[in-house]
Amino acid sequence: MVSRNIVVIFTVLALLMGCGAVEPQGTSSQAEASEAKQSLKIATGKLIFNDSNLSEPAGQSCNSCHQADNFYADPGKMVSPGANPELFGNRNAPSISYVSFTPSIYWDQDEQHWVGGFFLDGRANTLQDQAQGPFINPLEMANPDVASLIAKVKQAAYAPALEQLYGQAIWSDNNKALKAVTDALVAYENGPEFATFSSKYDYYLQGKVDLTALEKKGLQLFEAEDKGNCAACHPNSLQDNGALPLFTDYTYDNLGLARPDQLPFYTMGAEHNPQGADYIDYGLAENPLINNGPDEKGKFKVSTLRNIANTAPYMHNGIFNTLEEVVDFYNSRDIKEKWGKPELQDNLNTEELGDLNMTDAEMQAIVAFMQTLSDGYQLAE
């Protein structure tokens, strides 16, 4: 598959960019060349994203944990195994569809809270910073260092495309080469495949389809401040500029989740988890980019609800397997013992969840509405 894609890439490159032999003349030619370059960058990024030779040992790619066929998530797994299938990370692999819309982390002075950042704790300030992490993480793609990764990239069929895009000089400095690799990845993640805006709800907002009575009831409850109040953190209305909603405000909350007894990370050994079974995930509090860590214990970034019906299990630790469980937890965290003791009591969100007094029918309606958020909805002819 990779070889076939490379042939296509270089055919397009030769036809549209002239292999760099001729400098484009005129605005139209410059625009075409720029578009061709961006297309090449996206195509190269896609090849990198799917290259399972970039791990140590070989066998794991970005797509392994963020599968394009599954809305860029890893459904069915509480946490994902790394290149070494016996090693696991500490968090659920979130869907990265629509990830390019995430802002860099910043302090909202008016609301007095953090917003944005990449990873569930916001520790990467840009998407390019985030893209570097998994390559070197010993629990993910497990390259021992940047040099080891770039040695693999040099042998890849798309290496000439990287040279065409970024110049041969990238190979003289491993960090320059890494920057080129991650820039191409970001171009792909910024591309149309990651943000299709093709859900039933998108078409509903555009007046192209109607929701069922149950879905409309769920929408009403989703928005109602005295019921689900989901829209408080997962805004569902058209944005001020008319753009379709992203279903996250990129803020952080401690929802009061219990410790999942079965989290594989507890048994990863002292090299990867010195605390063993006593490990606690402090979330945003351990983000080196913030200056008030103790005030942020247990908080994790609000995830988008786009494609949520297809990306179980849920929450940062993968503790829930169904949307019904998630909605029930929000509804009854403070009144049902079955949810267990929160892993961290600090900063617990008690204003927007815990005892919402919704009936089973109301909770099911909210689930029905969330099922309209999956991309790929087919409009009637």
Descriptive notes:
- This protein is mostly helical and 381 residues long.
- The protein has eleven helices and four strands; from the N terminus they run H-H-H-E-E-H-H-H-H-H-H-E-E-H-H.
- It has helices at residues 2-17, 26-49, 62-65, 127-136, 146-154, 159-166, 174-189, 200-205, 213-223, 323-332, 360-370, and strands spanning 106-108, 113-115, 252-253, 300-301.
- It starts with a helix and ends in an 11-residue tail after the last helix.
- 38% of the residues are buried.
Per-chain topology:
Layout: H1 2-17, H2 26-49, H3 62-65, E1 106-108, E2 113-115, H4 127-136, H5 146-154, H6 159-166, H7 174-189, H8 200-205, H9 213-223, E3 252-253, E4 300-301, H10 323-332, H11 360-370
Quick gist of this model?
Residues 40-157, 213-374 form the Cytochrome c domain. The chain contains 11 helices and 4 strands; from the N terminus they run H-H-H-E-E-H-H-H-H-H-H-E-E-H-H.
Helix content: 25-40%
pLDDT averaged residue by residue: 94
Radius of gyration based on Cα positions:
22 Å
Largest sheet: 2 strands, antiparallel
CATH architecture of the largest domain: Orthogonal Bundle
What is the helix/strand order?
HHHEEHHHHHHEEHH
- How many runs of DSSP E, i.e. beta strands? 4
CATH homologous superfamily of the largest domain?
Answer: Cytochrome c-like domain
The level-1 CATH class of the largest domain:
Mainly Alpha
Task: Write the CATH fold name of the largest domain.
Answer: Cytochrome Bc1 Complex, Chain D, domain 2
